[in-house]
Structure formats: C-alpha cells, structure tokens
Design goal:
Elements (H helix, E strand, L loop, with lengths): L2 H7 L10 E8 L10 H4 L1 E5 L2 E5 L24 H8 L3 E7 H15 L5 H9 L23 H10 L3
Parallel strand pairs: 1-4
Antiparallel strand pairs: 2-3
C-alpha cells in the first residue's frame, strides 16, 4: 500500500518546506467496519514479511479492507509510509467513497479529466484542507478513469445526475 504516494513524496522528504499529505480510502467511513484506512484504523503487525500498520482483528488475523477502488482495498500500508506517519513527516487523512466520487466528478466537469478512483481520494481531500493563496498544490493523478466507469455510472444513477 502506498506505492504511488511514496514515489511522489520521495524527492521532497528532506525538504521541510514541502508539506506532504497522504490520503487513505475510508470506504463507507472509518467507523463502519467497511474501510481501507489502515493508518486511521489499523495497528502494528506483520504483513508479507514487513512490520507495518495493518488491518487485523484481536487475534492478529488480517481483516478484509473495503474501498470502492480496487487499487486501495489492501489491508496494510508500506513500512516507509508507516514510519513517515509515526515521525509526523507525512500528514495522513482519509476520504470516503462518496467524497472520492464527488471529487472525481468535479475534476471531470471542470477540467475534462476522468481520474481513476485511486487519485480521486486525493482530490477529495482538497476540500478539507485550508490553503493559502500562494500555496502550490500538486496532486498525483495516476491511472485512468475509464476502468472505473461502472462505479461512476452507478454513482450517477444514485445521484440522479
């Protein structure tokens, strides 16, 4: 979990003037039991031979994550991102399925870009953060939204769009 984020952050890790923000997939919400927000809801454990933050039950068994985005429903996060969270170098937040879908539709409407659902979560966080007028904001838009058209069409039907 988090390969796109760590790839985007890598060159800025030593530059304290750059604020790094990672966005997790909260699914139906962090308190719903239907989430993939590992930093927000997980605990330290071992997954695929790495000690990191993972989603697990009280017996240490991996629990099933949920996100509308298949690329984000993973029960762990890369160990480097977990360390960056613990060291407070990266601020972690999360976006729900509904927030990500709404953000994807905004980008499509205003810019003509159909984002994949994975980066749509990062777009959703832009509404939650207060920026100064002189801030420069960079969002990594990886993937293509055409693979997520079924989810987008379902959302359009639900919202009567």
């Amino acid at each position: 979990g988090g390969s796109n984020a760590i790839g985007s952050f890598y060159h800025y890790l030593d530059n304290e003037n750059v604020k790094l923000i990672a966005v997790e997939a909260a699914g139906l919400g962090t308190g719903s039991g239907e989430t993939a927000a590992t930093i927000a809801t997980g605990s330290p454990g071992i997954l695929h031979g790495s000690r990191t933050m993972i989603m697990q039950n009280d017996d240490g068994q991996i629990t099933e994550p949920y996100s509308i985005s298949a690329g984000l429903d993973y029960p762990g996060i890369g160990p480097m991102l977990a360390w960056l969270d613990r060291s407070h170098r990266v601020l972690f937040d999360y976006a729900t399925d509904q927030e990500a879908l709404a953000a994807a539709f905004r980008l499509t409407r205003f810019e003509g870009i159909i984002p994949a659902l994975e980066p749509a979560h990062a777009l959703a966080i832009l509404d939650k953060i207060r920026f100064r007028p002189d801030d420069v904001v960079v969002v990594t838009l990886s993937g293509r939204g055409d693979k997520d058209m079924t989810a987008y069409i379902r959302y359009m039907d639900e919202m009567n769009l």
